[in-house]
Automatic annotation (TrEMBL), chains A, B:
SUPFAM superfamilies per the UniProt record, alphabetical: Composite domain of metallo-dependent hydrolases, Metallo-dependent hydrolases
Pfam families with a match to the protein in the record: Amidohydro_1 (PF01979)
Biological process terms in GO annotation: guanine metabolic process
InterPro entries: Amidohydro-rel (IPR006680), Metal-dep_hydrolase_composite (IPR011059), Metal_Hydrolase (IPR032466), Metallo-dep_hydrolases (IPR051607)
GO CC field: cytosol
Segments forming domain Amidohydrolase-related: 56-439
Cofactor(s) the protein requires to work: Zn(2+)
Keywords: Hydrolase, Metal-binding, Zinc
Name under which the protein is recorded: Amidohydrolase-related domain-containing protein
GO molecular function: guanine deaminase activity; zinc ion binding
Amino acid sequence: LRGTLAHATSPSTIEVLRDALVVVTDGVITNIVQGADADALQSTLHDVTQLAEDSILLPGFVDTHVHPAQVTFAGSGTDRPLLGPTGWLECYTYPAERAWADPTVAAEVSGAVVRRALKHGCTTAVYFGTIHLEGTLKLVDACLEQGLRAVVGKVCMDRCSPADYVESTEASLSDMEAFVQATIAKAEVAHPNGPLVHPALTPRFIPTCSTALLAGLGEIARKYNGSDGGDGGSRANKVFVQSHIAQSADQLAFVEQLHPGQRDAALFDAAGLLTDRCVLAHAMHLDESELQLIARRKSALAFCPLSNVFHTEKPASTLDAPNAWRCGCNVGLATDTAGGYAPSMLHACRTAVIASRCLHKDTTVDWKYAFWLATRGGAAALSMPIGGFEVGNEFDAQLVDPSAGDPPEEAMALGVLEKYVNLGDDRNVAAVWVRGKQV
Amino acid sequence: LRGTLAHATSPSTIEVLRDALVVVTDGVITNIVQGADADALQSTLHDVTQLAEDSILLPGFVDTHVHPAQVTFAGSGTDRPLLGPTGWLECYTYPAERAWADPTVAAEVSGAVVRRALKHGCTTAVYFGTIHLEGTLKLVDACLEQGLRAVVGKVCMDRCSPADYVESTEASLSDMEAFVQATIAKAEVAHPNGPLVHPALTPRFIPTCSTALLAGLGEIARKYNGSDGGDGGSRANKVFVQSHIAQSADQLAFVEQLHPGQRDAALFDAAGLLTDRCVLAHAMHLDESELQLIARRKSALAFCPLSNVFHTEKPASTLDAPNAWRCGCNVGLATDTAGGYAPSMLHACRTAVIASRCLHKDTTVDWKYAFWLATRGGAAALSMPIGGFEVGNEFDAQLVDPSAGDPPEEAMALGVLEKYVNLGDDRNVAAVWVRGKQV
């Protein structure tokens, strides 16, 4: 492709490459040149797409935490607490997730969620499924069919859950391992040169998982990741871990009640779940020593600004992403649909900026920082070679058309990218590529 | 029209009227009936529009503070302070406003801004123009041509302003009075039965207006409002007042430097500008006694959650709307484009909720409260008979199509209005009426 590229090169720097020629071979960027060099190289190539003059090619967004089964009630129940008999989990989440006992429902909802992610310029998503093995495999199928890069987990929960939405410890572990094996097999068939979809061990959160379940999941992690060839995880199908951590005051109190004197991070670590492919969502109530533990283990955090605002005490708190980076943690951005109502990473960027301005005195997430989190941050959190345009990275990208959608032309004249981050929506996404393939 | 209507009846109550027949005569709601009564009445009427089954008719939004000349840079410069040589006013605002010295530019931008307001379901807007008499009259023309209900002001500023974007006190007052007369005349011609567009005296903010200018504006207010017939202001063309008040720490410091020991509210009051048709934007640094003064004068506040977050110190503050209501002030919601980047009142609703959760411990703006502010609050702030569906109110409405735009159908199944407020966009606005006329 030839045209204008832009990507984040640091939390405060956006690099714009005008009239750049990016060469993609087997999904990997093999060359990027500009100007006269581009003319010379282009004459040797036979298949070059010229991008529209005012359009701009960006890295695809990496959404590090999403609950596909919950989108059916997205936009509802934002005024409820997380826990308790009239809480959000009881009244909205569990009923929506139970519906995935029917694989047909799971397939239909999954198809719509994946379509919507791509439409919004998201090329990689980290998905929380439900406790259903077959239902969550439909989510894997939807990702593979539509070509979305994804980390997908079947949820594990063996206690402190509704009587009709819970597993035994044994069933949870055996279904989880079956899910890992099936996902690895499906991904291998779909992409023999390297998986696009990865399985994730997915304890819901500490309160709904017995110590035995957590320990069993830790064993699965060791078993499947022990013989990694060290190629960075892109081509090998490593098993990820995902969960929620330190999300709200009532969740912390619940953990204290179940595990007196202990906190989330130490409990995950004791089970062997803080791996270098672990993504923990929320994390706004971690202290500095917990952030440092997570950094030492090379685990990562998913910053969910919109849902953080709703599912905490009031005044709300959110993860201070710059501070977490300072402590050495990789942090990605996330929509957390439907804990947050908006499926768009643009909305997550905007909310991250607003929340930072409202809540954090000493650190600032501005629009550039948010864009960096939404691309580079997510790539780092998942240890994937994406998030920016460099030789050797896989080509996951979105083409932004500033003239589409709602913004009037004059509003887009200064700084297309800044306007897209602040004003754009899915109408501005003209095309999307994952590993070099338009999807 | 016959179909499903919804409107706010209190800050915490949304009333849904299913299968309702609303009768509109000369732009005014003359009857609303449901069920069998609707069938009986409908048989006597010859021109009834049946609304689509899943659509919902809402009051049009009232945007109580917008700067049309600034939309050209909307989405830019959110990381700058308000004042100072590299500040937002100097680098973005004044250059964009200077362009309205050319009435052709003013006409073009105004046309686009008014079109966009209507497209987003906004049926009433309070517009800050520029210092240009002719340019700002183009904004009046755009409102009249497209049928938007509006309050429009030519900006007044005679000091502490750039040398090439400032007026003399005399020119400011004479242009302001000429603007008032021209707007009243144009509005009278366009709508002989009662104006849809009203002029507003518009001191930019205290620092850019000399005491003589403020006092002169107060005299104009008395002159044009003295003989009001007391019909509530809908049919008489009262002269409004609008300005900014108590917007940021650096603005307060600037006022203290210019007027030692005095603050914004008292200065406006001394000039006679706190009238019952006065709308003051921002207002987040008013103390309780200032709120009470404004309430006694029956002046109102425009709550601008998005721009408040950007144009204050950090951590940000915003107006605590429930507290201001408790003090007796009418409060409307506002986009403040381009102090805020988003032209949509839906976005203002969402930001009001997020800011309230982040910043205010003792009061809460949830989605219902925000919707109430965006409709009833704005109507109360402007003393206009709009904002809800009652006999005697003028019919300003928007028809919401939940199946349009981005939200998948299943996401709209529970509570169309809540989903629209949280997830919708301009694609969901299927039709818009102002004073009974589809626009």
